[in-house]
Amino acid sequence: MRTKEDVINQGPCVVVAGGGTAGHIEPALALADAVMRARPDARVVALGTQRGLEGRIVPARGYQLEMIPPVPMPRKPTMDLLKLPLNVRRAIKQTRAVLDRVGADVVVGFGGYVALPAYLAARGRTPIVVHEANARAGLANKVGARYAAKVAAAVPDSGLNNAEVIGIPLRASISELDRQALRDEARQFFGLHPHAPTLLVFGGSQGAGSINNAVAPLASEFARAGIGVLHAHGPKHSLAVQQIPGAPPYVPVSYLERMDLAYAAADAVLCRSGAMTVAEVSAVGLPAVYVPLPIGNGEQAFNCRPVVTAGGAIMIPDAELNPEKVKETLLPLLTNPRRLGAMGAAAQSTGHGSAADVLAKMVLDVVGK
Known about the structure:
Elements: H1 4-9, E1 13-17, H2 22-38, E2 43-48, H3 54-60, E3 64-67, H4 79-102, E4 106-109, H5 115-122, E5 128-132, H6 139-147, E6 150-153, E7 164-165, H7 172-175, H8 179-190, E8 198-202, H9 209-215, H10 219-224, E9 228-232, E10 250-253, H11 259-265, E11 268-271, H12 275-283, E12 288-290, H13 299-310, E13 313-315, H14 323-334, H15 337-349, H16 355-368
Helix pairs in contact: 2-16, 4-5, 5-6, 8-11
């Protein structure tokens, strides 16, 4: 725990709780970057668990990572449900010890099983700020919002009372991306045709089997139409695609380390509609065909609905996704530059490129008070 002298000589300590999936981690790290831009004397500490992606992502971005026990919420009455109170108490105790040791001045939660123990450990001791990325708030953020000094949300009607709508914090490499300026470099980086209309396909960090199966069989159709494809199929999947000599290539990759270059290379996107994905694709002004993941309470469909309503995207239910549907939807789109431009502008009009800086100011204001 910090002494009074430490508090005087150091900037604020901001603890972010957003582990588990990239959809929770990336907004937390985008906020961390924005806090450091606003207050270079600040310290940012991330909370995480051994089971999430944060063990790889957070240290690589240069931030301190403190591990705490996860508190997953069982969806069905099982033995795990009976163990829940004990697991919660243990997680709160260990998380509270971390907050004391690092001298937390504020806890910023982004939902999920890392945020819940952080909220409960900070309650009544350390100010809390909650950010909800999804169109429908999850249980952790509903709990955190009850004790929060400030609540922010990506979209209206998230289910959190008095939430300020600010969008989703995005890393600067995305929010400030100039697709046109990077286009040649991006096409060369991935081995794509320098001028052909190009489709970017991905299904999250692990890929999506239904998307892979609907798109890969169309490789020759895309090639004959003069369309290139960059397809991230996921590390657990593989693709065998037919290449046509002299036609724009179909480039399969397991994972996209450089999403900024992937967006810069593309003219349209076919992907899932996680909240983070929708925010990024809209911010960079790409037309999209969204295929919501059919799980949970249907939040992925809610995530992309505002962009679809604005004319910046098309939504295809996962159950209706097949090669014929992809062909009839994407081939006419990718060969119509005017429609691509109109959809891209409509998508970008729904974005919030400054959300990270807005949330950083909100967080630092809470510390100041």
